[in-house]
Specification:
heterodimer; A: alpha/beta; Rossmann fold; six-stranded mixed beta sheet; 40% helix; B: alpha/beta; Alpha-Beta Plaits; 2 domains; two-stranded antiparallel ribbon; 16 strands; 14% strand; globular
């Protein structure tokens, strides 16, 4: 019988990690992630978790300690935010290339400067091309459930890639909700035996060199390097299917079926669509419901899996609308838009028709993206559908 | 360099003055003992008087009858009783009191090492006497497996290659080895294009995270009960003292059970000989070049092993390939300590390419660096503090070392003086740290006296703090 608790998103993430039975967690505090690692330490102190807790001197070493543990055969977990992720970047870059199946929660936050310790997705969006799988959660329950799912995906032999389970700083990290804790046996049987270092290990019983120099002049040329890079891409593409299977399996065992790649909300007859990501989606759904009451046919495509980007799914989901508004919680400086907007444009290229789209940037400086913000986004997207020219981008809270 | 010979070594710290060696010697030789254990300056400390079989024996020089000659094969100074005229000049010529007189017959009695199997050593119950065989390292470790492939692509005369081959022979296969970016992977430890250069599990960590990765490996193996694996780094000075220092310091503070060997060649030699935090003052490097406006590095090196001792690691030691027996003893202790806590071994390693010295002079450079106190050999444990393993007394002037190193060729007298001063300061500080601990302070400190007003400067040349410029507001 599963237990029901009331907790915030950080505690939900800690429970998700706890139930996944990692062998080692390495921690370093940073707002708004700190309480998550405090929960982990508490669980370990209380004996709820048997993981080895490593309190290291910085995020760079958080991931480095876990690299060593993973190559020795451990299941590993950690969490970070913003500047911590930036400091972690060097080993972060290396994790997917070494095909280390670890899970790290990103409690997303805007990046300094201007100094801001509040929620935002600038941190996670900035590292989208590194090769980690990125899944964004909408609710506290989804955070808890997605962490075991993430291990299942990461450790799948066809995938073998690290996963970031992302939840919005402040809104989800500190927001409290009802959360069901699944029984440990359910999670144990869902995950099965771990086998994290069958492909690359540091073990005197199986001596090998991990990460020899490749390519360059001489030798056998760049082919080894290309093989590794292609393998990463292949693992990413395999993950699209594995993520769906893992979510379905989890649903069967717990009764909670989360949309694995994208969620379509009231899209059946939608003429205009919003694209959302993360916890903002709740307010977006309210705004869509209100617009529907006014007779406007609006729907939402919410992205859960951002990496690998579900190109075909998104293109298909948006193929019948007349205009699209993409709402971001981060900035793409090079495109003068939101980062998700740019991604969606790429997906739309797969369609035979050209659908006008606009970028909305909201929730900067940790501010809420309100129902009213979404109502404005819907209005503007409707005008876009009616033929008004697109402008780039709309800063939803610039006058707040 | 002369030939190497076997010798009877004495560890005063183990001698309890029982005299068994003397009893045995006089019994075997049927006369006066050739070995003497005599009370030393302090209580319960003993000194050894025995023929040292000197390379340049004064006893033979003073002998008027040619009765004492050094054997070219064994190194033993033989005494020919037929030639000896019993003048006993040799007993006065020997500075070590190494030639005894058998009073019963008034004749010379000296050690002949019992034809290579000295009885006194066998009789010693504490291990204070040891018969050290020349080439013992070769004999003991030569048969062990070399864990690196032959033909590593290091520079001619590379000292780092010497260190890594010796260290891994000693440590063996049950180990996990990190060789972060630098000369060691550069010469092929981790191999190329999928082929390894090492027979043990080896990896190429980031330059910055060696100690952290090792900590993760060790912790997991400890957790699953595989506690006998040596988890170790062979890292350069750049990744240890500079950009990887946070990881080293953090791992040491947490007492991670790893063996961290820093091979210090005083710069980023593999990337083209750039300056690092351990590059000494005055040194030419490719980023501290010599020209009209710059004469090499303008800062002193940081003393990394002292910094590690301040972390209260389980074991810290410095070593040099010029003193291999010392290095091996420390390696033994460092390996053992790495199962209990953080173990740090700092090996000074001249780089013939980057230091501009002929490859044939690398070991000479190692020796002279120690003989001038440019490098000091010591070890540290939290229980014993710092202990010199080679006395810094009677050091040669620093020029004896610096003059042979091409990267110092440009040094002015002022710069040489600076180096000598800093070396002297360094040794003085180490001597203080190596001395016996001072008595503990009284339990309650007296309240501090009111601060006296600063004394006026004597004379007019006292240095003044810089005058700060006021910035006016707009």
């Amino acid at each position: 019988m599963s237990k029901v608790i009331v907790c915030d998103g950080n505690e939900a993430a800690a429970w998700g990690a706890c139930l996944s039975r990692p062998d080692m967690v390495a921690v370093y505090p940073i707002t708004p992630q700190s309480s998550l690692v405090e929960y982990l330490a508490k669980f370990i102190a209380e004996g709820k978790m048997t993981a080895d807790l490593v309190d290291v001197e910085g995020e760079h070493s958080v991931l480095s300690v876990l690299h060593g543990a993973c190559l020795a055969g451990a299941r590993t977990y950690s969490a970070t935010s913003a500047q911590g992720l930036a400091f972690m970047f060097e080993p972060y870059f290396r994790t997917p290339s070494l095909r280390m199946p670890m899970v790290v929660s990103l409690v997303t936050r805007d990046a300094v400067s201007p100094t801001c310790v509040w929620g935002g997705q600038q941190d996670a969006m900035t590292v989208k091309e590194v090769g980690w799988i990125h899944m964004y959660c909408e609710t506290q329950q989804e955070i808890l459930d997605t962490i075991p799912i993430a291990y299942k995906v990461a450790e799948h032999p066809d995938v073998m890639l690290p996963v970031n389970v992302n939840h919005d700083g402040n809104y989800l990290s500190y927001g409290v909700a009802r959360v069901e804790l699944p029984d440990q046996e359910i999670v144990d049987s869902f995950l099965g035996e771990k086998n994290v270092n069958w492909h690359a290990c540091l073990d005197p019983e199986r001596p090998m060199a991990v990460d020899p120099l490749t390519g360059g002049a001489g030798g056998i040329g760049p082919s080894t390097f290309v093989k590794y890079r292609k393998g990463q891409c292949s693992g990413m593409q395999m993950a699209l299917q594995v993520i769906e299977e893992a979510h379905a399996d989890w649903g069967k065992r717990t009764g909670r079926y989360w949309s694995p790649l994208i969620e379509e909300y009231r899209m059946e007859d939608a003429e205009v669509a919003l694209v959302t990501i993360g916890s903002m989606t709740g307010a977006a759904k309210d705004a869509v419901d209100e617009a529907r009451l006014d007779g406007r046919k609006v729907g939402i495509v919410k992205i859960k899996t951002f990496r690998p980007f579900p190109v075909q799914r998104i293109a298909k989901a948006l193929s019948k609308v007349r205009a699209i508004g993409v709402v971001d919680r981060a900035v793409n400086f090079g495109w003068n838009s939101g980062p998700v907007f740019q991604e969606v444009l790429g997906a739309l290229y797969h369609l035979p028709v050209r659908i006008p789209a606009m970028s909305f940037i909201g929730g900067l400086a940790g501010a809420d993206i309100t129902v009213e913000h979404f109502a404005r986004a819907i209005d503007r997207t409707n005008r876009l559908a009616a033929g008004e020219a697109a402008t780039l981008p709309v800063w939803l809270n610039e006058n707040d | 360099m002369g030939a190497a010979f076997d010798t009877i070594a004495f560890k005063a710290s183990l001698c309890d003055g029982c005299g068994d060696c003397m009893t045995t010697c006089s019994k075997v030789k049927q006369g006066a003992s050739r070995i003497s254990i005599v009370p030393g300056a302090a209580e319960a400390v003993f000194e050894l008087a025995i023929c040292r079989q000197c390379g340049d024996p004064k006893c033979a020089m003073v002998c008027p009858s040619g009765a004492l000659t050094k054997d070219g094969g064994s190194g033993v100074i033989g005494w020919n009783s037929d030639k000896c005229i019993d003048c006993l000049l040799c007993t006065a010529g020997c500075a070590y009191g190494g030639i005894a007189v058998d009073q019963s017959v008034s004749r010379v009695a000296k050690c002949d090492q019992c034809d290579g199997d000295p009885e006194c050593v066998k009789a010693c119950p504490t291990g204070a006497l040891e018969f050290r065989k020349a080439g013992s390292i070769y004999k003991e470790y030569g048969e062990r497996e070399d864990l690196f492939v032959p033909g590593l692509s290091g520079c001619l005369g590379c000292n780092s290659e010497l260190i890594m081959r010796h260290a891994m022979r000693k440590i063996g296969r049950n180990s996990v080895l990190a060789t972060p970016p630098g000369c060691i992977p550069g010469m092929g430890s981790v191999g190329y294009n999928g082929k390894t250069g090492t027979k043990v599990p080896v990896f190429h960590p980031l330059l910055t995270n060696t100690a952290s990765m090792l900590a993760g490996i060790r912790r997991y193996y400890d957790k699953i009960g595989r506690k006998d694996i040596v988890v170790m780094a062979l890292a350069g000075d750049g990744g240890t003292a500079d950009c990887g220092f946070h990881a080293v310091s953090g791992a040491a503070e947490r007492g991670e059970k790893i063996l961290y060997v820093c091979v210090d060649n005083e710069g980023y030699m593999n990337t083209g000989m750039q300056r690092s935090g351990t590059t000494p003052y005055g040194s030419w490097t490719s980023t501290t070049p010599v020209g009209e406006h710059m004469k090499g590095k303008t800062q002193d090196a940081k003393n990394l092993p002292m910094i590690m001792a301040a972390h209260k690691c389980r074991y810290v030691a410095t070593a040099s390939t010029g003193y291999m027996e010392d290095l091996y003893e420390k390696l033994d202790k460092a390996i053992e300590a790495s199962f209990e806590g953080f173990s740090y071994l700092h090996i000074y390693s001249p780089c013939p390419t980057g230091w501009r010295i002929p490859s044939s002079k690398v070991i000479d450079a190692c020796r002279l660096s120690v003989e001038t106190n440019f490098v000091t050999l010591w070890e540290y444990t939290p229980q014993t503090g710092i202990r010199f393993t080679r006395s810094p007394d009677n050091a040669l002037p620093i020029t004896a070392y610096v003059k042979m190193i091409g990267k110092y060729r440009h040094l002015s007298q002022d710069q040489l003086d600076h180096i000598q001063t800093k070396v002297d300061e360094q040794v003085a500080l180490l001597r203080i740290m190596a001395a016996e601990s001072p008595p503990p302070p009284p339990a309650h400190r007296q309240p501090a006296a009111p601060a006296a007003s600063p004394a006026p400067a004597i004379g007019g040349d006292a240095s003044q703090p810089p005058v700060r410029r006021e910035i006016s507001r707009n």
